[in-house]
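Appendix B. Chain record.
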Amino acid sequence: MPVPETGDPRGFKTYEDFKNAVKTQISYLIKKSVEAAHIVQTIMMEKRPMLVVSVTHDTCIDRALDIECGGAKYDGGYTFLLVGFADTINALATVKKLIYDDKKLTWDELLTALDNNFEGYEQIRQMCLAAPKYGNDIPEVDEIASEITQFMAEEVRQYRGLLGGRCEPMTSAVSVHVAHGSYIGALPTGRKAWQPLADGLSPMQGTDTQGPTATLKSVSKINHQLFPAGTLLNMKLDPSLFKDERGTGSFMNLIKSMCDLGIYHSQYNVVSPEILMDAQKYPEKHRDLLVRVAGYSAYFVELGKEVQDDIISRTTLKRLI
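Structure tokens predicted for this chain:
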């Protein structure tokens, strides 16, 4: 199946044209990912039996079948880790705002700036950074978030694995947003080339400026039920928030609000950027500094510098309302 020809963006007369082209390319990438997963599963079935796991399943023993070959009672499909949600949402929102709604930029101007990684085009980059961003309870951006995440999830869930189980999407980045960002060029969001993407369902680093409740409201607009394999929202809180009982109570209310809004999974680091930067510079002084990364915890000083920088760059929330 060839890569779809969706045309030169300069020819898109409306935002809908652009959005539909993006959806077409996403559909293609998901389909190719399923085909690749079929190949991997075939190799697993033929060349990589899982004997120890199989003997823990009665049905594998009864059927004399390895778990990779359908021995288990239930066979799931593939789990697809979708990365860069906020980057996709913000890119769509930026193009809609600057090119189609306000007409402050042309496609020529934006594409030239992106091709040059914004070098020599700082004014355009600042316009992109100033455009509305996901995570701030902005209705028009949250509408894009709801639509595009629903589309991605439904595209994944229409496919099945070789054993018949339905494929499921998940958003827990497990740090791959750092690796994936290292080979992705500049984006209309104002993000420069090769920088980390946003992790999980979290806002783009440093752009959630309206407080944690606004972020929760934005994330709640996404249909989490379509992501049974897991969703993830990371937040970084300043330790000063917990200096008294009022702060602790506000934090408990924040967690309750998260549950009331139907958000499945959030996790928190309570650490100042100053401590993180000191630990990066003097690791011998901070061997016990444990942080939540992206679906797992690790000692900060043992993480690669790229992952450390990503955690430092996350917005440090200094208020809970």
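Further analysis of this model is presented in Appendix C.
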